[in-house]
Amino acid sequence: MMGKITKGGSFGGCVDYVTRRKKDNPDGTPCNEWRLIDCKDVSMMEGRNGIIASFEDNLALNPDLKNPVGHISLNFHANDKDKVDDRIMVEIAQKYMKKMGIMDTPYIIVWHLDKDYPHCHIVFSRIDNHAETISDKNDFSRNKAACLDLTKEYGLHISEGKKQTNVNKLRGTEKIRYEIFNAVDAVWNDKSVHTFEQFETRLKAAGVGIEYKYKRGTSELQGLWYTRKGKRFAASKIDRRFSLGNISKHLANNKPLHSQSQWMYADGSIVPIASYKGVRLTTQQMNDYVAGKAIRVDGCQGDMPTVWIKFNPQRMTPGVYSSNPDLVGQSASQSQNYGTRLSQVPSSGTSQMQEGFANGGVLPDDFKLWMSRHPGLTIEEALHRYREEQKAKRRRQGPKLH
Question: Region (Disordered): which ranges (predicted)?
Fold first, then answer.
């Protein structure tokens, strides 16, 4: 069983949709593609109009709520046809609503009969009978958990996802969307693909293109679309696995890291970095860093608002400097390395942060003074020696007397 959540502002439009108003018979009677199997706190005396009026009574309790209409479809696998009847579907839907905190509010449950798999639609007021708003916080993750719990409780089929869909039975845009899914999924499962260039090339051979989305007015990459036969789909509309970030992580896992450094790949190339002390790097900065150049980063948190970052091939880690190490005549040994608080881009295969001194925060004045007297040390070396000296100093002073 899977649940799909939507929200809206029109009870009339939602009720008309789930009761198939557009397919009413010429004499005005409802078509046979749906049936109402359960309801609560709604008037059935006037048909659709009575249901809509009941929902709108609750809307009057909080007319400023932006999306008062709750709409959830519960979709069962075709293999569960013989397991799900009206009674079981109502029972599951009621348990689902309880798990989602949808209580003490008007609702209807409508079974749609126009598909080869059982599914129903729940329409409810997000303003309950006490004028309180039914929370939608984390509703997508809660929905997933609730569906999985009920699927196991009732012994229903646990679907393997879109892979089981028969594309030949689909038509139009939906067919194209599943063709894209199958093409991307095939490349996803090929462990030999570990760069975006390879990823794009393989998709192009399968008839699927990629368009990149950038932050308005900048070169910062934000996401991507997949294209086929003149249609364009956001990555999330194909599958959440296939977003820019998730694809990057997955490709990086296909490309092993260096055995001695998480900042290098096994082939010696440099892992890109995404941010430093609250500053997101631009695509150009990332490209320059991967090419081995020093990049300037402005607006950093802490005592050093401007730093230069450059990969150190000898140490196989990024170095963060107070001045540009690429300048002619600039001695690397004279550049003070202030430690790193760098996050790798998703393609690094990890979301861990490399923490610098004091978790990337402000450097204590006494430590900065100590560093100024010991140039040429990395943050790790300087911190180790500083701490050892402090320990020795405390040992010479003896225990504190209270």
Answer: 329-352
Contact 58, 87 (CB under 8 A): no
**Pick from 361, 358, 359, 360: nearest CA to 386:** 358
- Same domain membership, residue 125 and residue 179: no
Residue ending a domain, choose from 153, 177, 207: 153
Q: Are residues 149 and 18 in the same domain?
A: yes
By C-alpha distance, which of 133, 124, 130, 135 is closest to 55?
124
Strands (E), 216-368: 221-228, 231-234, 257-258, 261-265, 273-276, 279-280, 295-298, 306-312, 317-321, 342-344, 353-354
Q: What pLDDT digit, counting tens, does each position of 53-103 carry? A: 999 999 999 999 999 999 999 999 888 999 999 999 999 999 999 999 999
Residue ending a domain, among 231, 254, 277, is 254
Q: Which residues touch 295 (CB under 8 Å, ≥6 apart)? A: 281, 285, 288, 289, 308, 309, 310
CATH number of the domain that residue 39 is part of: 3.30.930.30
Average pLDDT, the chain: 82
> Using one digit for the tens of pLDDT, what is the confidence trace for 149-198?
999 999 988 655 566 566 676 788 888 988 999 999 889 888 778 888 88
Is the C-alpha dihedral spanning 125, 128, 129, 130 positive or negative? negative
pTM over 0.70: no
DSSP 160: -
Tokens of 57: 């009574």
Count of domains observed in the chain: 3
| Residue 348 three-state SS | helix
In this prediction, residue 122 carries a pLDDT of: 97
Other CB atoms within 10 A of residue 204 CB: 12
CATH code, 169: 3.30.1300
Round to whole Å and give the CA distance between 73 and 137.
18
Among 150, 178, 148, CA closest to 164: 178
Residue 269 lies in a domain: yes
Q: What's the distance, CA 207 to chain centroid?
A: 26
Per-residue pLDDT reduced to its tens digit, 346-367: 433 333 223 232 233 345 566 6
Domain that holds residue 70: 2-153
